[in-house]
Amino acid sequence: MKLRLILSAFFAGLAFTAWAQQTADVKFEPGNFGTMVSGTITGDEYFDYNLGAKAGQEMFAELQVSDTNGNGVIYFNILPPGSDGAAIYNGSIDGNTARIDLPDDGNYTIRVYLMGNDRDTGKTVGYNLDLSIQ
Predict the structure, then answer these.
(1) Which of 19, 45, 71, 113 is the most exposed place for a label (fewest CB within 10 A)?
(2) Cα–Cα distances in angstroms (integers) from residue 12 to residues 5, 9, 18, in the given order
(3) pTM: predicted TM-score of the whole model, two decimal places
């Protein structure tokens, strides 16, 4: 009976695994080390921005609300190369400005998402995300 419950919980969890509804690769203009991206998130959507970096470089990311029909409860996480969703920076805990030294070479993901009532009631939040790597 316990095994059946464990397996049921495992497969139920798989059914609710979310995939990014939107993804973009971030490229900097020649001679620049940063850029600003903008977008909107509604409800339980999230947007993944992917960019390559080297170990030891510093990533800066700052997220600001540009418009909302809710409370503007928006955050971002930074996921390291090869992550299954585990973040090295969690905006809902650490705030919407990050300055971190990158531990590995590879492609990092900045995942923008809503939380709380905005997520649960399908509100829309517009944002500007300032990104740089040095």
Answers:
(1) 19
(2) 10, 5, 12
(3) 0.82
